[in-house]
Amino acid sequence: MNNLCADIGYKSVNHYGEQLCGDHVDVVEQDENSTVIVLADGLGSGVKASILSTLTSKIISTMMAEGLTLEDCVETIAATLPICSVRGVAYSTFTIIHLLNNETAEVMQYDNPLLILLRDGENYDYPKTELNIGGKKIYRSSIKLHENDIFIAMSDGCPHAGIGMAYNFGWSREDIVDFMATVSVAGYTAKTLSTILVDECFKLYGEKPGDDATACVVRIRKREPMNLLFGPPSNRDDCDRMMSLFFSKEGKHIVCGGTTSSIAAKYLHKPLKARLNFESSKVDKKQQKRPLKPSLNFESSDIPPTAELEGVDLVTEGVITINRVVQYAKDYLADNESYEQWSMKRDGASLIARLLFEEATDINFFVGRAVNPAHQNPDLPINFNIKMNLVEELSACLKQMGKRIKVSYF
Q1: Average pLDDT, integer, range 389-408
Q2: What is the 3-state secondary structure (H, E, C) of the chain?
Q3: Which of 33, 180, 206, 379 is the most buried (most CB within 10 A)?
Q4: What is the C-alpha to C-alpha distance for residues 8 and 148, in angstroms, rounded to an integer?
């Protein structure tokens, strides 16, 4: 078993004037290291296309995750899809990426633009075998996964972008390969890469898409553990145990909350000291103290400033900062419109967002159940339940991003 995992992200824009998208992406985890990803494109656009693509992706992903063959899936689709009363056919194209043990990708393609595979920043011409299943010409490929491989599946709305406007015959697959090869080397997440591609299609359509356009990106990467400490334990006697478990974990360490960071500094035998000399954080060699160093550089007026503590990768305020991270996480899973904010800023919420969304694959939450007296003021919108809800909401969002999450309460 290798140490690889899949970062999966997708983005769609609707046909201009339509409320529903005729493309649909479905992701089903077969087990801890195997995943089925299906991008389906229903005939036409609007409600009918949405029904066709949703049924197709759901049927294929569910059946394949249960171990059924592609032949069974195609037969089931043919017998299930409602026939269009106008065209007299039930038609939906699809692209399937079946990741097996994060070692191999089984790719099956029917009438969608051919899947793009970028390897080492360049287009990789993978082998394809032509099959005939139920009268449908389907291409099948088996590809051994390499770290940093990027798979790009798309509906025909992507290469059709710009027809009669920026391009006479649309944005060709070769043009898309060159465009994505250029941006792929920057290390963006799968979600960001899919957003970049679809946003470019939207621009080429003159912001009035003539078809639904969807891109689904799968990025193969190594696992990266991350640890986040939020709040002191309900029992003071558990402080050392909580800190011991937190700092023993592999990966980067994030500490959120003023009291929590004070406990962390005390555990590290570096007493918490407010320093007015913000340019120096050198260790006092006589007493081996590493004081917490406030950074009074306000990057965001509504997010409290960060601090520094040697041995900890990031120290931030608690509830207000995490609440903003949750907002960013929800947007990331939707339209990813806040990306330009948190990807560039240096405030605590943006820094946490980059660490959790872009770097981490396995995240351990260490959550203290202590009640902060400062939060018991009825005039404040913060209470214990809100703090716990933030952890639950953030964990749920990160799971939807494909992260492995473990939450430990103290």
Answers
A1: 95
A2: CCCEEEEEEEEEECCCCCCCCCEEEEEEEEECCEEEEEEEEECCCHHHHHHHHHHHHHHHHHHHHCCCCHHHHHHHHHHHCCCCCCCCCCCEEEEEEEEECCCEEEEEEECCCCCEEEECCEECCCCCEEEEECCEEEEEEEEECCCCCEEEEECCCCCCCCECCCECCCCCHHHHHHHHHHHHCCCCCHHHHHHHHHHHHHHHCCCCCCCCEEEEEEEEEECCEEEEEECCCCCHHHHHHHHHHHHHCCCEEEEECHHHHHHHHHHCCCCCCCCCCCCCCCCECCCCECCCEECCCCCCCCCCCCEECCCCCEEECCHHHHHHHHHHHHHHHCCCCCHHHHCCCCCHHHHHHHHHHHHCCEEEEEECCCCCHHHHCCCCCCCHHHHHHHHHHHHHHHHHCCCEEEEEEC
A3: 180
A4: 13
Instruction: Give me the mean pLDDT over the 8-31 stretch.
Output: 94
Instruction: Locate CATH 3.60.40.10 in the chain.
Output: 4-222
Residue 378 has pLDDT above 70, yes or no: no
Per mean pLDDT, which range of 30-34, 115-119, 351-355 is the poorest? 30-34
Alpha-carbon torsion, ordered 273, 278, 279, 285, to 10 deg: -10
Question: How far, rounded to the nearest angstrom, does the alpha carbon of residue 53 sit from its chain's CA centroid?
Answer: 23
Q: Residue written as tokens 């997440």?
A: 189
CATH number of 4-222: 3.60.40.10
Contact 107, 96 (CB under 8 A): yes
When mean pLDDT is compared across 49-53, 130-134, 276-280, the lowest value belongs to: 276-280
pLDDT at 249: 97
Q: List the single range of 62-71, 104-113, 127-136, 295-304 with lowest mean pLDDT.
A: 295-304
Structure tokens at 403: 């992260």
What's the pLDDT at 276? 33
Q: What is the pLDDT of residues 230-250, one digit of tens each?
A: 999 999 999 999 999 999 999
How many C-beta atoms lie closer than 10 Å to residue 83's C-beta? 10
Q: Average the pLDDT over 54-64 and give the result.
A: 93
Cβ within 8 Å of residue 209, ≥6 positions away: 13, 14, 15, 16, 157, 161, 201, 202
Distance, in Å, from the CA atom of 291 to the CA atom of 271, rounded to the nearest integer, reads: 6
Unique residue bearing structure tokens 């595979």: 117
